[in-house]
Amino acid sequence: MSLIGSEATFIAVLAPFAAAIVAPTLTRLLAHNAAWPLALVPAAIFLFFAGLVPEVAGGASFTPAVDWAPAYGVTFSFFVDGLSTLFALLISGIGTFIILYSGGYLKGHPQQGRFFSFMFLFMGAMLGLVLGNDLITLFIFWELTSITSFLLIGFDHLRAASRRAAIQALVVTGGGGLSLLAGFLVIMAVTGEANMSAVLASGDTLRDSGLYALVLALVLGGAFTKSAQFPFHFWLPNAMEAPTPVSAFLHSATMVKAGVYLLMRMHPVLGDTALWTTILPVFGGATLLVGTILAVRQTDLKLMLAYTTVASLGLLVMLTGTSWEKAIEGAALYLLAHSLFKGALFMVAGTIDHEAGTRDITRLGGLRKAMPITFAAACLAALSMSGLPPFVGFIAKEYLYTGIWGGAGANYALTATAVLGNALMLVIAAAVALKPFLGPKVETPKHAHEGPVLLYAGPVVLSLVGLASALLAHDTGVLVIGPVVSSILGVPSAVDVHLVPTHIGAALYLSLGTIALGVVLFLRLDALRAGTARLLTAIGWGPDKGFDQVIAGIVSFSAWVTRTVQGGRMEVYMTMTFLITAAAILVPMTVAGTWPTGFAMPDFRFYEWGVLAIAAAGLVAVLIARTRLTAIVSLGIQGFAVALIFMLFGAPDLSFTQFMVETLSVVILALVMTRLNLQPRDHRPMAARLCHSVIALAIGAGFAGLLIQITSAPFDRRLSDFFEAYSRTIAHGRNIVNVILVDFRGFDTLGEIAVVMVTGLCVLALIRVRPKRSAEEALDLAAGGDALRKREEARV
């Protein structure tokens, strides 16, 4: 890739973000026609990546990069190979028609500009995810897809169902993102590499590591939540609360495949192990069956398609988990086929809802004359979803059956799972494509008619691309599927794709069996739906309800913790603060065994002994003080003793600061004492006194041990030498301490000033909220309150 090509890659990823900025303004200016110029952005991105296909098909890969955060080794880098190119083509190509579709679907909507902006933000995030090379960069885009998905799912934020679905998707996928981040950090620690391309070149480093199981679990946590694998499948159907363009783009063709992308991408370094070939097929197969069974129960067109999307993602994970080459070829073909037919069918469902006023399949029928173009597009996409020739879905099914059956001997469990799942998907495809259009005309809430070109352009083109991909099977295999399989397996692979089976074998028989079973089940769809409903009703509880229970439990637990920890008693706050401080000092030193083994008593001069005596006297005065005011004043003696130490050791500026701080502290505390309604004496019970004494001694012992340990170690002069060398030349100051505070640590000092300011405001507020006392009462209360108490008793 040339320098211009590298720059174009960055432009391609950043272009959607630029479009997101201008989309609202452009929508206001062009009103209903804004979709056409906005669609040029993803169309241009598609053409750019399409231009890379011949080079990528020839085995080339590119890693353009620029420094992002060089101090932390983070680069803004991309990895362009067969797998990422296919995803980039799907994101930009389908995204082009989704933008057009959105222009027709949300025509006249007051927030259409905001919707376009959210869609472009997601598009850019998804492109960055599939192209990301640096692991931290990839993770940032990964989380950005969750955030933008949250915005799109909750677009209709006035509806409670939309808000719940958005929060649910964010919680599930965001939690998985944290798991993925931990996995990436462990991968970086094990391999010493921060780029995906370098990690993939590390060979068996991860598989041979003792941390392999941990890495796999963390990566699967991110992939399974993002790609809605059982038992995290529940968030995806709920996300159908979003407008249909969101469903067609995010939760069919792109975002939900991010987890599948990650598993395919990491296969060369994590795949082909006992754990991999056990966990992925089991969870993928379970997701396939759960998704198709739940789809049969639905009557909402979008929910039927959503659950089959869950099933398809399970099928992809199951195939990837086998690590068998032919199964991987089937997965790559099915990845392409599913994006095309499911994106088209979602747009068909949205068009039906938009033009007929409902998407309930039991309230639809006879629309073929009113919506002939939509009907044709639905049939073409459904044929591919059903795995019938001459569509790419048929080729994908042939290859995946070949891979499962002949991968490592006849795997009957995976084969049976795939056959049953594909048969049920044929049932749903036929129901979505035929039920609303065939049969007698049913009265619908709106007078049904064919939608504008913006609504049917996407379904027609995507379904025809599914047909063309099959008719040009050889070119599809050479230019698209072969490079994808090479990326997944980590070795060059030549894939020879044929529309017509080259020989009659198990795969063809399994395909015919799947079709026959699907037709039989479709003819019994109503009975099958009723039986599935009874089964699920009998089961009752499910992950979706469990999510609500978990969230409710977290909220209740948080409330309990808040009531316990933040009970409104300052004494509890102070006790917990000092207790945690003591633990933070003592536990590490005890566990690490770093307690000082000896302490040499310094040779004090007589005046140094005098300062020490002053500090000790202050300590005794604090302990025996009978009133709070006396204790506060006595506490200042400690600060004055420290100030004297600073002065004796040649730091007069610090000494002066310490004197000022201690004086002001005593004055302010005494002032506050006279204005607050506090008891003049400490009336804590003996148990509380003992507890607090133990904590105080623990903190004192911990700090003493820590300081002794630090001062007994050899002095490290690196910082001292740095400040001595550069305080004058860089900061132009001779007082090193002042230079550190004002220049080198200027922001820290600013923060400290802000803290002092806020503290002063809080003190002022505390003083002002209490009723004022007379000067005589204030002084009497500070001194002990005896005279005030006698006057109160006399009044009684």
TrEMBL record:
GO terms for biological process: monoatomic ion transport. Residues 614-676 form the MrpA C-terminal/MbhD domain. The chain crosses the membrane at residues 6-27, 34-54, 74-101, 113-130, 136-155, 167-191, 211-236, 248-267, 273-296, 303-324, 330-352, 373-392, 412-433, 453-473, 506-525, 572-594, 606-625, 632-650, 656-678, 690-710, 749-767. Residues 72-116 form the NADH-Ubiquinone oxidoreductase (complex I) chain 5 N-terminal domain. The keyword Transmembrane applies. Keywords: Antiport, Cell membrane, Ion transport, Membrane, Transmembrane, Transmembrane helix, Transport. It is found in: Cell membrane; Membrane. Gene3D superfamilies: NADH-ubiquinone/plastoquinone oxidoreductase chain 6, subunit NuoJ (1.20.120.1200). It is a multi-pass membrane protein. Residues 133-413 form the NADH:quinone oxidoreductase/Mrp antiporter transmembrane domain. Its main location: membrane. One of its GO terms (cellular component) is plasma membrane. GO terms for molecular function: antiporter activity. Residues 689-774 form the MrpA C-terminal/MbhE domain. NCBIfam families: PRK12647.1. This is Putative monovalent cation/H+ antiporter subunit A. It comes from Stappia taiwanensis.
